[in-house]
Amino acid sequence: MFDDILAAIPFGIILSFTVGPVFFVLLETSATKGARSALIFDAGVILADVLFIVLAFFSTEKLVGKIENDPNFIIFGGVLLVVYGLISFIKTSRSFRSIVKEYHKVEIQKDYGKLFIKGFLLNFINIGVLLGWLGFIVLANKITTSENGVIVFVSTMLIAYFVTDLFKIVAAKLS
Known about the structure:
This protein has 175 residues and is mainly α. The chain has helices spanning 2-16, 21-33, 35-59, 61-69, 71-102, 112-124, 127-143, 149-174. Helix 1 (2-16) runs parallel beside helix 8 (149-174), helix 2 packs antiparallel against helix 3 (35-59) and helix 4 (61-69) packs across helix 5. The chain starts with a helix and ends with a helix.
């Protein structure tokens, strides 16, 4: 079980630095609205991740079995995620620059409920997140050795993801 935890931590950290809309909005929220607002936003993101994990874990057992036995699915999924990530990065970096330019013109409001929903929806509408978690579950099935290895692996990934986000929030607030 300890090996499963150690194997999952790097994946959680890497996941936290995956460039996409959530990455930039989290940094922007922290810098403009404060750490508490960014934590609320991140809680919404993680709730969407948990829902995707539950969906991927319980409703796609047959698909996971097929993907495990055919590495072409993993390669195709990886290429799809890379292309999606590049497109998201290009679109998001443009909008992030315009947000920064407009920052001083807008009065900052801290509506925690809206921030939570924004984090949830921003992550939930991204089908790539579901595919990513499906891939991580397949990976966990291959890597883990303990009885509940997949659950330990995915839980550790989420914890590492959240802890890394805490560091990003503090860094964005300090800059």
